[in-house]
Amino acid sequence: MRESSYKVLPGPEGYLPPAAATMGVMLPDPGQAIMEGESVDRDIALRAAARKLIEARNPVFFPGPLILWDWKPGVAEKATALKELAEAVGAKMIPMPDYRPKYPMINPAIEVNPNHPNLTIWHNKIDVCLFIGVHCHYANLALKIIRGGTDCYTIAVCAEAGHEEAMISLRDAGLCELQRLRELVIELKGGKNQ
Amino acid sequence: MKTGMLKISPGFEDIMPPEYRELVDNGPYGKNYGIGDLGSYKELLEEHPLCAGCGLALSLRLTLASLPMPEDTVIVGSTGCSALAFPQVALHNIHSLFGNQNAVASGLKRALKLRFPDKEKDVVVIAGDGATADIGLDMVMQSWLRREKITTIMLDNEAYANTGGQESGMSMQGAVLNMAPTGKKFPKLSLPEIAQTCGCAYVAAASPAKPKQLAKVVRRAILVAREIGPTYVQLYSPCPTNYKFNPKETVSLIKQREKDGLYQSKEYISQEAKAFLESIEVKK
Amino acid sequence: MIDQKIVDPDYLLFEAPRTSEYITGSEAVREAIKRANVDMAIAYPITPQSESMHLVGDIYAQGYVKEYFRGENEFAVMSSVAGASMAGVRVFTATGGPGTMRAFEVFPTWAGARLPIVCAFMTRGVNSPLTIQPDTIEMAYLLETGILMLHAENSQDLHDMLLMAFMVAEKTDVHIPVGVFADGFFVTHTRDKVNMLPEDCKLPSYDPYSAPVPVMDMENVPVRQMRDPFVMKSNFISYAAHASWQQEIDAAAERSRKYLNHYLGGLIDVEHEDADIFIATSGTAVSQSREAIAIAREEGINVGLIKIKSIRPFPREEICALASRAKGIIVPEFNRVGWLAKEICNVIDEPRKVVRGPRVFGGMTMPPELILAEIRRIHQ
């Protein structure tokens, strides 16, 4: 298909940015990842994500229901790996426990919601965030609103096909990717874990 | 719900918002709670935007507290006031369109039976009187005629409340409401009788003025639907906003109506349902 | 019922040995659904669709489909199909013409709710006076519902597209409904040679837990989950959330291009790519065009064919590239409004090149001479 000149970059892009997929940005093939709208080798994306995370002033992880709940085999291990990654990065965690419209009752200090993720980003002054365990539909909803209204750099660790709405997105990502990301974070920090 | 499914992942307990921690620590799943336990556990309804004194909100709260198996209950709602509360209900629930709730529930119930042949999954329709008795009556009755094993609960506030108080088939004759500026010209529909004729194995009319009775009929209706066939419950739930009475008087208004003979509780149980209910109610 | 083994979809569609049979379009539907590992089918009669769902009923009785019933009308059927899909099963239905219109409110909600439903539309006229005759006007109304739309030329297309439709619809990054359209009577009620797949093979089953939204079964998280909640408070946040949701449906349709290209071998087929004049059309109008093209080429006119297989997503760039070199593009259609010509005009740089016709409707057939006359006119 056509080459896209559209860039998925930190915003704020404006009032109502288009969905990246409708601007020709395509999801990566298996083994690849997507970085600012371009398909790249998975390891390049992992390294770039690690660098973004450690260089961030205030990195925050947004774990969604699929990882917040130990609802099927394999989740607990991923949750532990995510927690270890957050510790290595020095990132805060703000959960996305569900997807219901909560405005204006939401407390942006303790949760994030796909219908208005910008509130949490503005309130907590988040410059880099990482999505994980969020159902793909809601992740894209939120990632696009973030691009439109904030300057936050978004990273999505997706167990399915990935997210072209994120600035960096992994696909088919699981425990290995979380562990690899942690190794890279530690390596880039000069080998020292906190 | 698989046993242990609702467990917070290790290390995430402290970041989970309190309404979820409470649900895990003290929720109703698998507990067989009833309305007598209200106030002692974390309810399924987290918060709701319905009006003060809303009879429908009260009926909904009592209905949710009466579900025999909340951990395996999926609800189908419809457009209306109750749809504003449902995003806050800690059960999988569907809002599709206005009036198609029993058709959605038919597909849902049969599909869940296919996927979980050895497990009970209660499908409960909870919708207003406009959705049930007017726009959706076709699909409500057809689901009964097809003997779908679902429970249909009408929250009867005698008006289209969410769209600004229009007359419905459940409004009383003479009621002056929007779209009936000179008063409603025909009587309130007798849906319990229709339900009985259409093959419902259990039919009841109740109200939140008698919570224990409401709880009993909701529970019976769901248990009968699980085993035998379609069931129908009609819950009289007055609307202070559109009928312009004091929100404090919702329950007393129901009692007054009952005294005046304008509302009565009902229960019809088919022979088969009666035998079934006796067998399980004696066992307990 | 023959024991069926699950096979890789690519094997089934591209490699498995095929045997040729002379069957109707409705029978082609039956044969496709038999191999599609469908959990549930819901039926409602309407001419010219009824026979398809009768035959699906037959294979339900034989055990190939696990659940099947007749609903009370198309709006209810499409609603029941939505309920089944939200419960996590693979579900199929079919309708056409006035039935499509009766059900209409449900279609945009299928896409909005990310339901991978496959529906066959056996197209028929919808206008007053009532007609049961073939006409593709209902497709005009469905263009913006978010449903992916494939248009079959013949029974072979119908058969293959139905199987492909399930595979595309269920991709996590797509996960929206697919409508497979066939021109009523012309395809459904005529016999044609169809190369059929082995009867002992079927598609892999659907995994609802890979869906981009939670399944309504109380077996996955979050449990505090409504599908789909009202986002209708009057504030910017609600508007933005709803807008972003709508854009995500468009995005899902865009993502389907890659999969459709794989399965269909492109959203269009082209014959005589170097042609000066193209006939661009879809459905059975393609077959009529082939006849006109054969005659015109004998006369020495370099005319080619663009067979449009996917209407949504629309092959805008493929058509644009071909149109830029052509002198004219003729768009024959089986409807009064000329929706396909409008679609083509919308995407090409020089809409004046488009001949918006010939059009026949009300059940009339399209003599190739009508198309030939346009070819000759442009050629001069």
TrEMBL record, chain A:
It comes from the Bacteria. InterPro entries: CdhB, DHS-like_NAD/FAD-binding_dom. This is Carbon monoxide dehydrogenase. One of its GO terms (biological process) is methanogenesis, from acetate. The lineage of its organism: Bacteria, Pseudomonadati, Thermodesulfobacteriota, Desulfobacteria, Desulfobacterales. It comes from Desulfobotulus mexicanus.
TrEMBL record, chain B:
The keyword Repeat does not apply. It holds the Pfam family TPP_enzyme_C. GO terms for biological process: small molecule metabolic process. Coiled coil: none annotated. Keywords: Oxidoreductase. PANTHER family: PYRUVATE SYNTHASE SUBUNIT PORB. This is Ferredoxin oxidoreductase.
Automatic annotation (TrEMBL), chain C:
Residues 32-248 form the Pyruvate flavodoxin/ferredoxin oxidoreductase pyrimidine binding domain. GO terms for biological process: response to oxidative stress. The keyword Transport does not apply. Keywords: Oxidoreductase. Residues 275-365 form the Pyruvate:ferredoxin oxidoreductase core domain. GO terms for molecular function: oxidoreductase activity. This is Ferredoxin oxidoreductase. It comes from Desulfobotulus mexicanus. The lineage of its organism: Bacteria, Pseudomonadati, Thermodesulfobacteriota, Desulfobacteria, Desulfobacterales.
